[in-house]
Amino acid sequence: GAGVSQSPRYKVAKRGQDVALRCDPISGHVSLFWYQQALGQGPEFLTYFQNEAQLDKSGLPSDRFFAERPEGSVSTLKIQRTQQEDSAVYLCASRSGAGTDTQYFGPGTRLTVL
Amino acid sequence: TQLLEQSPQFLSIQEGENLTVYCNSSSVFSSLQWYRQEPGEGPVLLVTVVTGGEVKKLKRLTFQFGDARKDSSLHITAAQPGDTGLYLCAGHNAGNNRKLIWGLGTSLAVNP
Questions:
Q1: Residue A100: is its pLDDT beyond 70?
Q2: Neighboring chain B residues of A41 at a CB cutoff of 8 Å
Q3: Are A106 and A89 contacting, i.e. CB atoms less than 8 angstroms apart?
Q4: Engineering a disulfide at B91: which of A92, B29, B65, B110 sits with its beta carbon 3.0 to 4.6 angstroms away?
Q5: CATH class of the B5-111 domain in this structure
Q6: Where are chain B's structural domains?
Q7: Which residues pair with B85 in a beta bridge?
Q8: Chain-chain contact of B97 with A44 (C-beta, under 8 angstroms)
Q9: Do A42 and B104 touch (CB under 8 A)?
């Protein structure tokens, strides 16, 4: 596709379950970002990949959060033992290079933890 | 953590009115971006400003970057219902192009 895609679009999990969120960036984009966005607020940075290397994971809220991008393309954000405070929209963005050019966002995955 | 403060947080106006949204920080940013986000979608970039004092226009939207590159404003003239959405500012600190610092957003509702 032409843009960033994310799946699933909606995920409902029971507290304690593990979830995996997928991001398909724009083909050829070097940089990939994950963000967490609470309702009505701005995104908060979680982690950043340049190709397959995870260069910054300072925004991951706990060790229950794990992200990977093994082949430098598709990325997965995994949340283990989900808690209610993990409920949010998880946004993925990709960027063609490693500079400050435009980030293109996917539609997000809305995670609800019951 | 360096923050971007946006104001107002919520704004409800009538069609045809003008409005200004502000984005302020105590820190200097090498560039600052404005995004618009609609429900169920990711943010979409409207503009990037990089030079202190820079003014950019996008149809009825005017963006300004402060001289000291610590603040920015978005002015909408003759707002229309289609302008409704969440407006977000985000900036890169000098020397760190890995992540954007985001404001909390301004939720704009334009009523017909």
A1: no
A2: 104-105
A3: no
A4: B29
A5: mainly beta
A6: 5-111
A7: B108
A8: no
A9: yes
Longest dimension (CA), chain B: 44
Kindly list the residues from chain B whose CB atom is less than 8 angstroms away from the CB atom of residue A105. Answer: 41-44
> First CA to last CA across chain A, in angstroms?
33
pLDDT class of A101 with cuts at 50, 70, 90: confident
Q: Chain A residue with minimal CA distance to B40?
A: A107
State percent of chain A over pLDDT 70: 98
Fold category of A13-97 in CATH: Immunoglobulin-like (2.60.40)
pLDDT one-digit tens code per residue, A51-95:
999 999 999 999 999 999 999 999 999 999 999 999 999 999 999
What are B49-67's pLDDT values in tens digits? 999 999 999 999 999 999 9
Chain B environment of A106 (Cβ under 8 Å): 42
CB neighbour list of residue B36: distance below 8 Å, 6 or more residues apart? B43, B44, B46, B85, B86, B87, B88
B93 touches chain A (CB under 8 A): no
Domain ranges of chain A: 13-97
